[in-house]
Each structure stands twice: as C-alpha cells, then as structure tokens.
Amino acid sequence: MGRKATTAMMRIAIAGAGGFASLLVQELSRSAYAILVLSRRAHPEFEANYDCQVAVVDYSNLEDLKFTLEGVDLVISTISGAEQLNLIDAARRARVRCFVPSEFEGALSRRPAAGTDPFDNDSSTALGQLRHWSQPRQHPMKYTVFSCGVFYERFAPGGLQACNMGITCRIRNQGDYMVDVGQGIAEIPETTPQGRPVYVVMTSAVDVARFVAAAVELGIDSWPREFRMRGTRLTTQRLHEICSEVRGVEFEVTTRPYEQIGQWLRYYEQNGDEAKWYSMQHLLQTANGRYNFGEANLNDAVDVQPTSFRQWLYDIWGPA
Over the chain (320 residues), what is each successive 10-residue block's mean pLDDT? Predict the structure, then answer.
C-alpha cells in the first residue's frame, strides 16, 4: 500500500521526443505517474495523444533545466552527447532521485575501455558523472542503465531512421547493420576472436518500453546499477536464416572471418570511407560480444513476455 502511494505520486521526466521516447511516454502514461516530456521544440501531439506535459527546454541552459526538473523523481534520457551531460548536471542540482541514461543497447561489461570506444559519444563521461553523483552522503542521485542488446528496429523497413530512432548513430538506414531484409542480403561476422559462433541479444523498442514501465512498478529505490532485458538471443548465422525463412527467399550472405574485419577497417580508413568504416566497426563490435549477455535480470523480475524476433519480423515484413 505504501509503495503504491509513493509511485502514484512520482514525477517522471523523459528527455527527448523521438520514436523511442514516444514509446516510453505511451507506456508510462498508462500509469498514475505524472509524465513530463523535455524537448527542444513543442510537441502538441504528445499532449493530445498521451496523459503528459511537454516542456520546451534549452539543454545548454543549466538553470532553465534545473528549474524544469524541480520536483521530478526519475529522469529517463533518450538524448546523448553534451546535451545529456548538461541534463545529468541539472538533475543533480534539482535533487532528482534517479537517472536513467541513454544507454539502451550493449551491456556495460561488454563495451570497450573508455577512450577506445568508437561509438562513445560522451557515454563514458556521462557514466563517470553518474558514478560520481551517486556517491555523496547528502542527496545522492542513483542511476540505472537498461541494456537490451540490439533493437529489432535496426532490421525494420527503412531501418532505425524510419522509426525516428538512432539520430546520433551511424547505422540508421535499412541494411546498415548485418542484414538488409528487403533486399535479401547479409554481411555477418563469422566467429568471435576465440573462433566461436557470434551471439547477439536483441529486443524490440516496444518491449524495451514495456520493460522500463514494469521496472518502475518495482520501485526505483530497489533498482540495481544495471537492468538487462532480452527479447531474443541467437547466433548471427541463425539471424540471417530466420530472415530468409520468414521472407521465403534465399539470402545472399557474406561471412567475414574475424581477422578479415580488421583488414577491411584499415582499408576503409585509408580510403576515407566513413560510412563503410562504421558499418564494419559494428561487425567488429558484434564479433567481440558487445551485444551479447547471458543473464537477463529484468526478464526474471517482471511479468513481461517479449515478442520473439521471428514473430516481430513476420509482423513487420511478412513473406516476400
């Protein structure tokens, strides 16, 4: 009874108004929480479609951000870079109880060391800030990372871009990451550095939002440093096989031996082909296990039944 009364009065701020943020708002607005959306511009459609408020903010103005966050218990960020760093600082000054950074894909323990991550975009700095501000004796700000592996939406028609997601990443288009379902082609890493099959964890963005909303029901004071969730875990070979089976067509598949990936990276770097360098870098990170993990503690903690990749693919694409 006491915990429900506490959560009912909670104020939750969601930073960003893209595709993933809208899914979070949709799920969380079904509860008794007061939802505040932070955006650089007005979004009347949010207030019309969901039970929420929208605050137009300037992420470079710390005082403005602090004022907007006064009385907020939980901040969920879907922004990155310098804007997220300022948001963390403002949240700390406003005495926000808990912060969820925009770190929704690879698990923390599987990422490259700070300073060596090609996809960092101030991620390591943000996590360092959050560790620092979680330790003061007076008014510490807890934080929790939600890791889900790869979004299914990377394989959607039009890719992440068509879902209004992944604005700051370099693989937003259909076919930029491993498989182009529409064209029936795939380029996958063959093995890990140890010569084993490459596994990848994946979850749909819709289910990630459902998992986050269910975690809020547990009470934010009980959250661990990292929640891991999983919709599907499979090998890269099985990934393209499922795509072929659902579409009913044979895919043209290129498998890259681990050592060959490094050679292609050097080639693309020497030739200044940034797009292909980033695409190949994602293959390297996948082969290194960035998007693979075993235990999914959030799956065990909440009653959410995620959609399998095969079912999601059939619903989105169907047979050719």
Answer: 51 96 95 93 91 95 97 97 96 97 91 85 93 88 97 96 83 92 97 96 98 96 96 97 97 96 95 92 96 96 98 95
From CA 242, how far away is CA 220, in angstroms rounded?
A: 37
Please report, as a single letter, which amino acid is at residue 92.
R
- Report the distance separating Cα 307 and Cα 227, nearest Å: 18
Where do runs of H (alpha helix) occur along 140-232?
159-162, 205-218
**In 16-61, which ranges are continuous DSSP H helix?**
19-28, 44-49
Q: Closest Cα to residue 291, out of 120, 151, 123?
A: 151
Contact 167, 266 (CB under 8 A): no
| The pair of three-digit structure tokens given for residue 282, joined into one six-digit string | 């994602």
Contact between 158 and 174 under an 8 Å Cβ cutoff? The reply is: yes
Question: Whole-model pTM above 0.85?
Answer: yes
Query: From residue 121, how far is each of 88, 192, 255 by CA, in Å?
Result: 15, 25, 29
Contacts with 8 (C-beta within 8 Å, 6 or more apart), sequence order:
32, 33
In angstroms, the CA 293 to CA 276 distance is 26
Neighbours of 283 (CB within 10 A): 23
User: Beta strand pairing status for 185-189 and 179-180?
Assistant: antiparallel
